[in-house]
Amino acid sequence: MSDPYVKQTIEKEVAYIEFFHPAHNSLPGNILAELAQTITDAGQNNLVKVIVLKSGGDRTFCAGASFNELININDEATGKVFFSGFANVINAMRKCPKFIIGRIQGKTVGGGVGLAASTDYCMATKFAAIKLSELNIGIGPFVVGPAIERKMGLSAMSQIAIDANTFYPAEWAKQKGLFTQVYENTEELDVAVKATAEHLCAYNTEAMTEMKKVFWKGTDDWDSLLSERAKTSGRLVLSDFTKEKLKGFK
């Protein structure tokens, strides 16, 4: 695999939505936009009862936002658009009327942690360590912070946001509520994800939709909240501190 993609397959009323990028599944704006639209469309598809979000490859689930795009931001408007990419995916997941199961096979960083936190039921392997690295480059996990705080609590979110150099193990993430189960390998994970998704398809669709509303209660302001957070990141990324940090990634 070499070309980035977002693809969907439907099996037994389960939509498997998969994204991929050769740079450790980091996500540029166009892939994020396609991912958000694919999730929205699956939510409206009467042939789909449950969604599984996954990524390609067997190592990294998601390395966060694309550094190639980050380095080329030169004004606040462009910065806001850039950081709105993950906001749009999170909001698509939040508004989707169907349960979304996360399948996290490996390490996940920054925006990828936000995606995992925005699923309704997240399953992982023991290799799925997490890290919020944004403070290292002079910004912060502003856009994904609300999703992570909602799932793991303010204490856990602030811990990994401040300790921006450290990967926290999958078992720690499970203890904090991000992951429901942690498996020994990808094969075991896939068996469990498939079984869970197909089992959910036997439930009352209307009941699941009503439950999802309960799960996401109190997030009706996230369209505006995450937009404001994206604006904050778009301003900070232009700072001298961040520009100096980013030179090391060129």
Could you explain how this protein is built, in words?
- With 250 residues, the protein is α/β, with parallel strands linked by helices.
- It has one domain (5-186): Alpha-Beta Complex (2-enoyl-CoA Hydratase, Chain A, domain 1).
- 48% of the residues lie in helices and 15% in strands.
- It has eleven helices and eight strands.
- Strands 1-2-3-4-6-8 form a six-stranded mixed β-sheet, with helices on both faces. The chain has a two-stranded parallel sheet with strand order 5-7.
- A hairpin with a 2-residue loop joins strand 1 (5-11) and strand 2 (14-20).
- Helix 3 (76-95) runs antiparallel to helix 10 (222-236).
- The longest helix is centred in the middle third of the chain and has 20 residues, at 76-95.
- The protein is globular, with a radius of gyration of 17 Å.
- It starts with a strand and ends with a helix.
- The relative contact order is 0.15.
SSE layout and pairing:
Blueprint: E1 5-11, E2 14-20, H1 29-44, E3 50-55, H2 67-71, H3 76-95, E4 100-104, E5 108-109, H4 111-118, E6 121-125, E7 130-131, H5 145-152, H6 154-162, H7 170-175, E8 181-183, H8 186-200, H9 205-215, H10 222-236, H11 240-247
Parallel strand pairs: 2-3, 3-4, 4-6, 5-7, 6-8
Antiparallel strand pairs: 1-2
